[in-house]
Design goal:
Layout (H helix, E strand, L loop, with lengths): L6 E5 L14 E2 H4 L5 E5 L6 E5 L2 E5 L5 E3 L5 E2 L2 E4 L6 E9 H11 L7 E16 L10 H5 L3 E17 L10 E8 L5 E18 L2 E5 L5 H5 L7 H9 L1
Parallel strand pairs: 1-14
Antiparallel strand pairs: 1-8, 2-7, 3-4, 3-8, 4-5, 5-6, 9-13, 10-11, 10-13, 11-12, 12-13
The protein binds zinc ion.
Zinc ion (ZN) binds next to β12.
Pathway: Polyol metabolism; (R,R)-butane-2,3-diol biosynthesis; (R,R)-butane-2,3-diol from pyruvate: step 2/3
Catalytic activity: (2S)-2-acetolactate + H(+) = (R)-acetoin + CO2
Family: Belongs to the alpha-acetolactate decarboxylase family.
Length: 239
């Protein structure tokens, strides 16, 4: 199989997690056929998923980091095949905010989806993991209010995630959405902030985006989406 390095694949939309559609609708095994790198969540929003080198890990709110079996279902995930030849550069002593600005200042990428991979040493890493929910599911903002926070210093690991153009807010979180996994596979999660000591940054721009919908899920199919305010709630829950 030739790996398509130019296509981003997403199952589910972030906008439909907002009202609480947290049921897993695609297996991790199916997801991995579309990429070896990516981010996502689990049924009931039971943690933060990060896929590195084809290995799907779930960081849960109790701080545990576990490899997921391929039969586990996810409600929302974004993946791609990592391009070893993607453009890359080294950075030192840089905050997350400064890195984000540097990328967009040096590249005309505001209108495209691209993957960001940062591999190296982090002076500080600040992450969160949301707590798994049972039915009836609350809203995404309610879940985010109960997130567990994690901090690490001098952590070696990999940041994986995406930039989504403002125009596609609702499908994904506009701007950067990044997850982390350390090299010892003991710490990670959805990134709130970091400071790079020294790391290699790789950027992979996508020509295509496949948006896959859970058409066999009746809850999704019958949901009347209240689109107004969705983006405000995404900002509130994800930043
Ligand atoms: Zn996340």
């Amino acid at each position: 199989m030739t790996k398509d390095l130019h296509t981003l694949y997403q199952h589910g939309t972030l906008g439909l997690l907002v009202p609480g559609l947290f049921e897993g609708t695609q297996t991790v095994g199916e997801l991995l056929q579309h990429g070896d790198t990516g981010i996502g969540t689990a049924t009931g929003l039971d943690g933060e998923m990060v896929i590195v080198d084809g290995q799907p890990y779930l960081v849960r709110s109790d701080g545990s980091v576990n490899l997921l079996t391929h039969d586990v279902k996810v409600p929302f995930a974004t993946v791609h095949f990592n391009d070893d030849q993607a453009e890359s550069f080294m950075v030192e002593n840089l905050t997350m905010e400064a890195l984000g600005q540097k990328i967009l200042a040096e590249h005309a990428y505001e209108n495209v989806f691209f993957a960001v991979k940062v591999k190296g040493q982090f002076a500080q890493m600040h992450t969160r993991a949301v707590e798994g929910q049972k039915r009836p599911y609350p809203t995404l903002v309610e879940v985010a209010e109960k997130q567990a926070l994690f901090d690490a210093e001098n952590s070696r690991g990999t940041v994986v995630g995406y930039f989504a153009p403002e125009m596609f807010a609702g499908m994904a979180a506009p701007g950067y959405h990044l997850h982390y996994l350390d090299d010892t596979r003991q710490m990670g999660g959805h990134i709130l902030d970091f400071k790079i000591a020294q790391a290699q940054v790789s950027l992979q721009v996508f020509e295509n985006v496949i948006q896959h919908f859970p058409v066999n899920n009746q809850e999704f199919m019958n949901h009347k989406a209240d689109v107004g305010g969705v983006n405000d709630q995404i900002q509130k829950a994800e930043k």
